[in-house]
Structures are given as C-alpha cells and as structure tokens.
Amino acid sequence: MKQVWVFAEHQAGQWTSVTGELLVAARNIADQLNGELNVIVCGDQVEELAATLKQWKVDRVYLSQHPELNFYHPLVYTETIVDLVSEYGCPEMILFGATYLGRDLAPAIAARLGTGCAADCCDLKLDENGNLLQIVPGLGGTIFATIVTPFHRPQVATVKPGMLETLGSSENEDKAKALKPVEVVKVEPRFPQNTAAIQLHSVKQKPAKESGLQAAKRIVAGGAGISGPEGWSLLEELADVLGAAVGATRPAVDEGWASHDLMIGQSGKTVRPELYLGIGISGDMMHTIGIKGKGTLIAINQDPKAAIFKQVDYGIVADYRSILPVLIEEVKRREG
Amino acid sequence: MQPLQIAICVKPVPDPKESTQLQINPTTKTLVRKGIPLVINPMDRNALEAGVKLKEANGGKVTVFSMSPPEGELTMLETLALGADEAILLSDLIFAGGDTLATARVLAAGIKAQGNWDLVICGAESFDGGTAQVGAQLAVLLGTPWITRVSHLKRVDDKHLLVTVEDEVEQRELLVQLPVVLTVESVVNQARPLSLWGIVEARNKKITVYNADTLKLDQKGIGLDGSPTQTRDLFAPDASREAEILTGDSPQQIANQLLDKIGWSRKGAAN
Ligand SMILES: Cc1cc2nc3c(=O)[nH]c(=O)nc-3n(C[C@H](O)[C@H](O)[C@H](O)COP(=O)(O)OP(=O)(O)OC[C@H]3O[C@@H](n4cnc5c(N)ncnc54)[C@H](O)[C@@H]3O)c2cc1C
Ligand SMILES: Nc1ncnc2c1ncn2[C@@H]1O[C@H](COP(=O)(O)O)[C@@H](O)[C@H]1O
Fold first, then answer.
1. DSSP label at A272?
2. Which residues from A are below 8 Å from B162, CB to CB?
3. Which of A7, A275, B73, B253 is a Cys-bridge partner for A218, taking CB atoms 3.0 to 4.6 Å apart?
4. What are residue A38's DSSP bridge partners?
5. Is the domain of A278 the same as that of A248?
6. A161 to chain B: closest CA residue
C-alpha cells in the first residue's frame, strides 16, 4: 500500500502550527492515493502527545523516543529517518514543515536517499499520475514554479507555515474522541559514529513577543519609509491602541528598529491577519508574498505610485507622520 | 591555533537590485536573464568574510568554489579581491540546470578534488534558488556534520567552533568539531567592501576551471538530466487587489474614513 509520511514537529510540548496543516493535506493526499498516512515523531517523553495525532486520522506513528532526541541533532535525526525508510519501505513522499528544523533535515534526508527535495512549498497537489505537484516561490517570490520529482521516491518537500488549511480546533478534538487510537510503532534512534561532533552548549528561550506575529489577528507593519526610531515608536503606539502585533520589512530590520523575528516576507514570516496596515512600505514582492489570506489590507505611503497600492484594499497617500498621531487619537476617542 | 583550510561556496546570482527586470518566456517557461549582471550571492559575501576572518586570525587558506557558467569568472575575481586566495570555477555545459542535489554533487567533487579541508562555509540561502538546501546536502555528500543558519561563530580551539543558531522558539549554542559544513546568515558578520588594494592583489591570484572530465564526474547525477527534481511550470504570482484611495480635507477626516472602512467601533464617539 502506498504510504504518505509526515514528520510531525513539536515545540514546547505542542505540535507546531504547520504540523496540523501538513496532516490535513497529507490525509487528503493519502486518501486520493488509497494509501496510508504515517507520521514520524522524534523526541523525549512524547507518547502522550503522539496519541493526539488521532484527530487527523493518522494510520500509524513511528515513535522514536530517547532523552538525546530532545535536542535536534542533524545527524541523529537524519540517520534515524533514513533507517525508517529502509526498515518500513520507501514511502511515496515525506513532508516537513519549512521551519528551522524541517529546512535543515529534509534536504539532508533527500541527499542521503538520492532523491529530490522541494523547498518552501506554498501548495501541494497530485497530478494524474500520482506525482506530487510542489508549488514553490523562486527569486524571492517574484515567480512561482511547479516542481515534480517524477522518477525518484520518496518525494521530499518542506511546506511553508500558514499556506495550507488546518482543522478547526476544539470541535475536532471532540469528534476525535470517537476515533480509534493510532497504532504506535516504537523505533530505535540511530546514533552515528560522529554524533559527538555536535554538542549542545547552551539553550535560551526567545521572548514570546517575537514568536506571536504569525498568530496575530491584526498587524501594523513598517518599512524603510519610517526612517527612524522615533517614527517606529509612533508605529508601535498605533499597534498598541489597535491591539495589533508589529511586523517589519527587511530594511526596517536591518536598521535595527525591529527584531529579525518580526520580518514578514520571503525570508521572514508568512502571516494571515484579518487586518494588515503597512506604513512606509513600497510593496516589493519579497515582503508582500508573506501576507496571505482574505483579510483587509491597508497601506500608507507618500508615493501615489508605490507598488503596494496595487496589492491592498485601501490606501492613504500621505506622509505617515501627518496621519499616525491623528489615527491614534481617533482610535482612542472611539474606544472612549 | 593551527591554520585552517577553508572552502567557501559562492554562487553568482542575477543582481537582486535588477530582479524586477527578470521575465518569464511564456512559451519555454524559462527565465530570461539576459543583460542582468551576475553578482556574489548576498549571503555568500558573509560566508567569504567569515572564512577570510578565520584565516586572518590564525593563517591558512581560503578557496572559493563556484558552479557557474563561464560568466561567473568575474564574480570569482571579486571573491579574490575580497580576500580569497584561490578560486575554483566548476563549469561545464552539462552542469547546467542542476537542482540542489545535482549542484551539491558538483561542489562536493570540486572540494574533494582540491584536497584537504577543515571547514566549508556556504551562505544560508541563495537569492535566486532560495532553497537553503545546498549546504546540508553538500555535507551529506562529503560525509561530515553540518549546521545551517549560523548567526554567530567563534573558533575555540584547534578542532572546535562555537556557533549560534536560532529556531522559531530557541537560541542554541553548539560546540562543533572540525571538519564541518556551515551555512551562515547575513547577521554573522559585516562583509567588507571591495578595496583598491584587494583588486590589485587579486590579479596575482589564480582562478582554476574544472569541468566534468577533470572532476571525473558520473554524468548520471548532474545537470538538468541528473536532477531528481524537475521544473514543470513557471508562473508569475497575481497581485490581485487595487486599492481604493481614501482622501479628505484633513488627516482627521482620512483617519475616520479608514476606521469606518475597517468597522472600528464608534463606542466613544458620543463623548
Ligand atoms: C533574497 C531576498 C529576500 C528578501 N526577503 C525579504 C523579506 O522576507 N521581507 C522583506 O520585507 N523584504 C525582503 N527583501 C527585501 C525586499 O526586496 C525589499 O527591499 C523590501 O521589502 C523593501 O522594504 P520597504 O518597503 O520597507 O523599503 P522601500 O522599498 O525603501 O520603501 C519605502 C517606502 O516608504 C515610502 N515612504 C518614505 N517616507 C515616507 C513617509 N514619511 N510616509 C509615508 N511613506 C513614506 C516610500 O515612498 C517607499 O515606497 C528581500 C530581498 C532579497 C534580495
Ligand atoms: N552553483 C553554486 N555554486 C557555489 N555555491 C552554491 C551554488 N549553489 C548554491 N551554493 C551555495 O549554497 C548556498 C545555499 O544555496 P541554495 O540552496 O540555492 O539556497 C549558497 O548560499 C551558496 O553558498
């Protein structure tokens, strides 16, 4: 039977958001192939978490548990998964989230198996022959390409977070209670000879503020046009009164006004806010490719010809310095 | 500390500043790059800088490897002017159109042919490919460990580097033993600008060109035909919206129009 494998990544005891997205897509693909959806879980004490996979109607979990797997070690993870492929049969595809881990691990596994890997897919489909159509951005998002791996298996791909549909939350957990538990196959991790060549020296959690952008319902984003830290404070004040998260373009990050985690776009985050307000942003595709979904998009830019005005719903042609203080006041007044 | 033999992978890419000039040929579905100058892939400048700094500290040699058409030679010259000691251009018609694995195979063959090495540094990702895959794949083919997206790097002794990487939630410091393949982010250092002296010195340095024969490469795994992935279609994304421009006599008016459009409640308006 054809197999579809997903690498299910977890951070701080929870599935990453993209894992949920992958599982929905992979279940769909497995059904179209009349195949099975099998999931790889690596980590320490993750049995309980693995049991929650049943809400995605997973057929089987390959569970590799070991205290050492708590830390992502490229060699150990790669060899453990390569072992799985030789032990349990070559799947049609192995899908990863395009997270730090996925983007590191997936190409390495593909190289070990001599197969292809498509990076940062924004969509996955099957063609009439059952090949995976992997839609990837190229040239910093200015073009898209459809990538296929016709003659090699498995087809390996990483999928950008925020691109695929996910399950509604609580309702499905209820439904899931009725589903049968997932079959769990325990597998030994593989520690290659040179494992000790990489050692964890220290770990530091990043501030939560920096990881909240992707979940934000409202985003106020700033670009090079803000032109200084005072202007940036004004933008932050607006975000504050609107209850919005702050986002940034690359120049704003390079200038040091915003941290790297706040960057939206090709090299940054993909977001799906209900409301996006871009200020002093030209509308370069490298930035706007990171804004998805059906939310309302607004831009403030003093240049009426700025490309951003072709990509948003409402525009204000003005120096942001004349609008922002007034806008902040008006929001406060309306809030009472 | 002992001198290091350092290999840097540099990809010549179409100048990002000119990327809006790139067009898709609608019939062949290929990119038309004509007339767009090639430059060092932005992050590979940082990779080169990291290598040159390590050499400046304790001696050794920095060799640049690049798989590129012959036009890449000018870019190689630039890497020599920025401090590399030698450049190896891996160039052959049959390398063309290779995907990341096919590219990594050529780079691995070039690095092996050149002899001993302690450290390979790549950029985290290329501007045009943008896959961030070549570094890890190269390491697999060379049979060494790898660390991708390094944002900070320090040599601690003859055999070890301390590197910093960040995932979505954590920042980790890793102690890695040489030989290793690293890919670096642009924040890892400030790449030096070209200097006149560097350009003068570059004239005395060597650029060697290797082809598939000199590398004794099996043609099966390289170039377009040897790539496991194929591009089936290229298309431009559609920028679908057209903004309604909000105007008014005063900033107040405009601000209020905006808030009305997004349905921001009028709770406080009566006061
Ligand atoms: C490989 C690669 C990857 C990249 N990835 C990303 C990415 O992930 N995210 C990203 O954002 N960028 C990315 N970039 C950079 C991207 O190409 C653009 O350079 C960037 O998005 C432009 O940012 P900006 O709009 O802030 O700046 P600019 O293009 O400089 O635009 C500034 C705008 O502000 C307006 N302005 C100036 N003053 C005012 C004022 N007082 N009031 C109102 N408006 C004003 C101007 O009219 C102008 O339109 C990438 C580039 C490369 C090469
Ligand atoms: N053709 C090439 N020649 C030399 N180095 C390359 C080539 N392609 C990719 N690289 C290296 O691999 C890194 C990642 O590229 P990519 O996987 O295309 O994003 C680049 O920053 C380079 O260091």
1. -
2. 201
3. A275
4. A5, A60
5. yes
6. B168
